[in-house]
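JOB MANIFEST
job_type = single_chain_structure
chain_count = 1
residues = 471
[input]
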Amino acid sequence: MPVNFKLLSLLFFLYVPILVFANDHLKIKKILNSYSFNQKNYTLIIENLSNPKKLSFLHNQDKPFNAASLVKILTTFMALNELGPNFQWQSDLYTQGEINGETLNGDVVFKGRGDASFSLVDLEKMLRQLRSQGVKRIQGNLILDNSYFGKLPTEIVFDDNPMRAYNVLPNAISLQSNTINFKFVENNNNLLIEADPKLDALKVINKISLNEKNCHSWKSKIDYSRQDELNESTILFEGEFSKKCKNKEIDLSVMQNGQYFFEAFKKLWLQNGGYFDGSYMYANPDEQNLNLIAIHHSKVLSEMIRDVNKYSLNLMSRNLMLTMISENLFVAADEGMVNSFVNDWFENQGYEHKNLFIDNGAGLSRNINISGNQLKKILKEIYQHPLMPEMVASFPISAIDGTLEKRMLYSPIKAKGHLKTGSLRDVNAMAGFFHNEKKEMILFIFIMNDTKSDLSINLQEKLINEIFYLN
């Protein structure tokens, strides 16, 4: 019987890829089985976007997980679509009353609309515009108008570190992300604590002792507590600090939002030659009765999302989600609206959203639910989107910057991956894109919800290293 070489060739070319595909799966399974993690507690998705016929791996892809800061991928992608890449947050400075000579007989009104990047430099520029009109004395108060957002949380219930920067609550008015930078400087066997900005209403008490121990986990060896009085906040530092740490710093939220803005406003006004001895209050005055003095615009959104994703900025991403709701629904948004807004967005895009639950734009929640497949859908949409370069560029680059600056330093994907990280207690996650050895684009998602989730970092990187060389 004659041999059909064409048929044999066809079978060969069909069969070999299947063998390679199966072999790749076995290699991944072998890595997963080499760890003692409960395999019900994580999802893993791998897909070759350059060649869909090649490696594809799915594990627990439909099971909902808490994805922590991977939620920021969703928030920023939604924002680019709903607000546009050129969107800018606007802040306004008004006067209320008449200006007679060098005196404003009335109030200064500041209206914020959620710009979490608004800084002391930005505020000073606006105040100088008021000074340029000849105003030196403000014979009134500072009015803070944060009505752009609706009712927002006033107490931090996420964890027992309410002063940490990641815990700052969303607000339409934010200055320096409502944090103060504290530098710890060892000088001649004395530890100095320098606050920036240095505000008259902030008292710093230093009871930290110096030692010669190693500098590992230095933040965990420092205790701090806050006490608020009528017109003053006190922060007490205790614990120990190693001389080997040299100079370290930490950003803490130590004053109430309005009080902080007021104290900074007062200091900057006086530094610029002005006089002010009023107080502050929250109100929503009619803009028709106000005189517009200055407008500040943030950087455009396509630039801002780099800070959100590379450095996992919670306040900015929470404000961003609320801004989307306010701009789209023409309401004063609050975080009680977030989940329905996100689910409606998924529905309108034609995405499956069963069991999806997102209650803030940062993923700073114990209640987040999103499946690996739902996140994969977003990542694949990003990859095919006209604004893909802006989105992917916002992710940390492996071993180069953001939350990956000190990871994957010796990995074959060093500088070849754009991957967003996420972590909470009992949550560790990574998702994004990287090039393999053949320069094909690989989509990668790993989310673990487990008491040992922090230990999964090694597993994540071992998987990525293996995938880099697979066929």
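[summary]
Residues 10-20 have pLDDT under 50 and may be disordered.
The domain at 5-86+302-469 is CATH 3.40.710.10 (Beta-lactamase).
exit_status = 0
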